[in-house]
Amino acid sequence: MVRRILINLTLLFSSALLLFNSPIHAQTPTFSVPRDPVTFGFTPLKYITNITNCPQTVSPEFHPLRPYPASPCDPLIPRKTPEAPAAADNKYLTFSCANSLNTHGSYTVLDVVPRNLIGQSFNPCTADLENSNGDTFAYQNYYLCGGQVCLVHPVTWHTNVGLENSKFPIISNTQEDLDDEVQVNLFLDWYLSGTVQSSEHIPLNPDNPNEMVRLNTYSGPVNKLLPRDSQLDLRTALLNGPVEKQYHNYIVGCRESRTVAQIVNAVLTCLKAAASNLLTLPRLAYLAARMVAQDLIQVIQAIPHITQADFASPASLAAALIREGLTVLGNDGQFVQDFLKIGFQPIQNLRTCLSALILDEVVNCGGPGAKVVRLNGVSLNSAMMYQVPYSSREDVTGESTISFIPDVSFQPDSDGYLINSCPGRNPSLIIDNAGELSDSRLYFPGLKSSNALTEISRSFYLPLPPTPTRVPDTSSRDFVSQRISEHQGIDDSTVVQRPDYLKSGLPTRNTEVIPGALAPNPLFRPDPPSCELSDARSSPGDNLVGSSIGSTLTYHQVFQYTPEHLVDFPLPCAVENAGCTPDRICCWGECQGYQPGGCYGPYPICKTFGKSACENYPYPGAGLCEWQDEEPGKCEAWPRRELNSNTRISVFIKTPLVERLYDSLVVGADSLLRRFLPKKPDILGPGADYLTGEHDIETTVPGQDTAQYSGSTSNLNNPRVDSGSGGAPADIYFDRLGSLADHFLGGAVSYENLNFQRLWRPLDIIDAYSPPIGTKGINCNKSRPLQAVACVNRANYIDVARRWYGLPTQGYPYAEECFNDAVFLSNQAGVNPALVLLIWMNESDTSNYLKIGNVSDFGMVFYPHNNWLAQITAFINFVKQIKSTCSAEIIQYGWARVFAAKFSYNTNLNKCIPTADTDEYAQNITNTTWDYISSCPFPAP
């Protein structure tokens, strides 16, 4: 029997060597392309039966760190204040406005109105509706009102707010292949959790020094500072929690399915390598079988303690084995004798080999023999335990709503006003219900995880005693699941009831946007009403898996104007284009082309004849007199004018948890940032802000992304839809996120050293934001592949930068290191990279910090100086804003002059309109700097 085992083990020996000599790779299931949950096929949930019934696990998953977008286990929208223990006013749900959806059109009216046909009193509630669009007899429904003309015209708009492509910035990004630096610096969830030892990454190779540096740099504060036992508690709580009730049983990774014989053979390989020729193959096989039967993982973990025993004494080794819980092995005299023969140092080597064996459980999910491991299938003693997250990765459900505020002051400029006090004629905004396509739900990724990791991080430096905030119980299932148990009703003041409180017999739809019903009242009145915010932060975040909100807006507008011609009509009279005679005169204007009848010929003879005498002149055929019948004329066309009809639909975003995050990380009394900066730093001076929102939460900077607005109507001429103040993209906003990025991630604060990430990051480990003046650090991505750009030769550009202050080169320009990243980011944003390169050269000699000192790399003076990434991001957004807000001026004055005007807006109050001062700057960049780096025409945006 032993011989048969040994033969089998020998046959497997060579394959085992290959197994252990090959590099260890692991990753999560392969992703589909593109990695966008909208195109991936996830359908947003609309109805549920019970919030404890988690949706069924499906395969393939979208991504292990966001496995089921649009299918959270708790798909109900939270109320404002459920379970916010840190502070009573710490909201779970934050309301923010988005750019308004503006409808525009015109209505044709007559500029000739009969004064004597208009009623002397006008009542908008009872006036006859005018629906002739400038027809001649439209004046029959025109009314005199205060010396002007009024008419009532009904309008119906069909509008759509499209959120299918909208993203959630700053919190997470699992849809793009981003570098560690970008993930850590731009996304809160990545920074807190770290980018290594996550289920979507290939496990680190401990034998590779570069990967160990990466482990040290990108592990995140929780991994670095939380004790190992507490980390294990968190992961264990997640594994043992209510899987498939509060969160999905999602994939953690893959392991290789191996037989017992394969495992024994692998252990035998390690033993043989460690023991060399000290033991025969039968003795090695015996040791391998006993170790596997005992508990291989337990043996590996015990080896460091075992080697502390006296290897000259079998009794000492046996006692050490028993002390480590390896009682069976400690009582096995043969095993003790054989183990002693291996020796101290070989056993140390054995542990490294066996540990590699265990790590090899985690394999490439696309490889042969890979077996998917879900949360409830992870062994607490396996290497895969390190890939288990600390908290639930479920999305949190939020919502977008639309509302109509009919006040005159809230609407864009129109001729007249909307009726808002007449039953049957008041504005109504009805959510479209065709197939119930309108779905307002949004699915926010990363917020539950960030919320839990924030609580963990805050517990690191709680002074004891007393404890100002609760220390998280890392073994609590409720903590890692981040369950929200209270949900909004139709007006956020009524807790959700079951069955549905709106449609009897149907399950609950926890939303304020009900198909077929009136749109909800506005959450608040945006100021300005257009909600076009000039200061916001953005990053390429994860998709919100939004749908669209279709609606029908109906209103009655009183068009009120002063016609050019308000006249008395002589009755009876002929209207425009009608025939006219002296007996039937025109109501307005001249009778054109009229010819009276009569006898024509030699004067005065023929003139005196009537028709009979004229036709029967005494000399028939002589042709001296000829009778002509009367030819009526035609009244000239009446002038018309177009009157404007404009409305504004307000759009709101309900975002969960962000206010709580901002309080916990930035402005709260015991926030992480205040632990390190407990008072306003002296460097800021008396007039500078410290933390946005510190005293007025409404002053915080929002996060930003875009939506798509559209609309149509048959009741107006030239209908069109735009957003905000007109011409700009439809921007949606998420309150607090921009300030969170500034103060915590260091995105765009004026004093870049005073953000949490810089305070917690050693400069010599990673070139994060804004290195100190005089160093050769810059935060562009220096590993970008070579990028080509029209009209700018890379080698010449680098040479110009190095000669900017003459030769020899003064300072240290970064043209070579950051050229490719500048071109890449410009192209990604749809902005001409040649323009970006030009301004970078002109404003800072390509970030020559060493020569210039304190400088705004791209001329963005209100953004962090000596901060390439923050500056180029701000500049690209600035160029996009010019393109959208100064389009008319660009056509009139040309791009270079308008760009210079907007770029110098601190001295140019008209902003888009050039001045002498701004033209001087335009001349400088077009005729000097641009000529240095290109022979092409000045680059358009």
> How many helices in DSSP terms?
28
How widely separated are the two ends?
A: 80 Å
Helix fraction, binned, reads 25-40%
- Average pLDDT rating: 80
Oligomeric grouping of the chains: single chain
Strand content: 15-25%
| Rg over C-alpha atoms, rounded to the nearest angstrom | 39 Å
Low-confidence stretches: 1-29, 763-776
Structural class, from helix and strand content? alpha+beta
Give the overall silhouette: elongated
**What's the total number of strands?**
23
Largest sheet: 7 strands, antiparallel
What brief labels describe this structure?
941 residues; alpha+beta; 5-stranded antiparallel β-sheet; 7-stranded antiparallel β-sheet; 15% strand; 28 helices; 31% helix; single chain
If you had to describe this structure to a student in words, what would you say it looks like?
- This protein is of the alpha+beta class and 941 residues long.
- The protein is built from 28 helices and 23 strands.
- The strands form 7 sheets. Strands 3, 4, 9, 10, 13, 21 and 23 form a 7-stranded antiparallel sheet that branches. Strands 11-8-20-1-22 form a 5-stranded antiparallel sheet, with no helix packed on it.
- β3 and β4 form a beta hairpin.
- α8 (260-275) packs antiparallel against α13 (344-359), α23 (833-844) crosses α28 and α27 packs across α28 (916-933).
- The longest helix is centred in the N-terminal third of the chain and has 26 residues, at 281-306.
- The protein is elongated.
- 45% of the residues are buried.
